[in-house]
Amino acid sequence: MGTIFCLIGKSSSGKDTLFNELIKDKDLNLIPIIPYTTRPKRSNELNGVHYRFIHEDNLRDYEQAGLIIEKRVYNTVNGVWVYCTIDDGQIDLEHNNYILIGTLEGYKLLRRYFGNPNVVPIYIEVEDQIRLERAMHREKQQATPNYQELCRRFLADSADFSVDNLILYGVPKIYYNEDLSECLTKIKFDIETLLNSFKGPGEN
């Protein structure tokens, strides 16, 4: 049985960079799960690569078909944005291991859907000052910077990823992303150790 690694953390903690490095690693051979969202596409994003961008009527069709694995709804300064993972046939745990970027609530729902042993959290932490600097730099690159939404996300993250919530959701370890290479090495080691523990004698 395969494993889904759920990369979680506050905004601008480096999840996207770590995610991209991990899916490029041929030793790990992790397949990315592409989430869906109704929010507008950012200038640096590609449909079907970072997210599958859909309209609300498409989302309703998936809901009526019972294909929503997990869904998160955010009341942003620009309206309601929905993020979700959909059982669209891209996940085959009998043959593959996967990775996706999610949230604590999404992680809980993934475990409920696929079973606790099959979903593993990778929680990324960065000092707030560094996160804010990164977020400001990224927002400046957008065609229409949205600083109000940036501030909303920043404050919401502090509550969502409190120590109490990490304990409540059963997140056993924190990976500190002050140094990308060091953080990546630790994550890769733990993923390889876990996957190797599932292999039988003689398997590579």
Short description:
This protein is 40% helix and 22% strand. It has 204 residues and is of the alpha/beta class.
Secondary-structure map:
Layout: E1 4-9, H1 15-24, E2 31-32, E3 36-37, E4 52-53, H2 56-64, E5 68-76, E6 79-86, E7 98-102, H3 104-114, E8 119-125, H4 128-140, H5 147-160, H6 163-168, E9 174-176, H7 180-197
Parallel strand pairs: 1-7, 1-8, 2-7, 3-4, 8-9
Antiparallel strand pairs: 3-6, 5-6
- Helix share, percent: 25-40%
Tally the structural domains: 1
Strand residue percentage = 15-25%
As for the CATH topology, it is Rossmann fold
Q: What distance lies between the first and last C-alpha atoms, to the nearest angstrom?
A: 16 Å
Structure summary, number of beta strands: 9
The CATH superfamily turns out to be P-loop containing nucleotide triphosphate hydrolases
Low confidence ranges? none
CATH class: Alpha Beta
Helical element count?
A: 7
- Label the structural class: alpha/beta
Give the rounded overall mean pLDDT: 92
The CATH architecture: 3-Layer(aba) Sandwich
Strand order of the largest sheet: 2-7-1-8-9
Radius of gyration: 17 Å
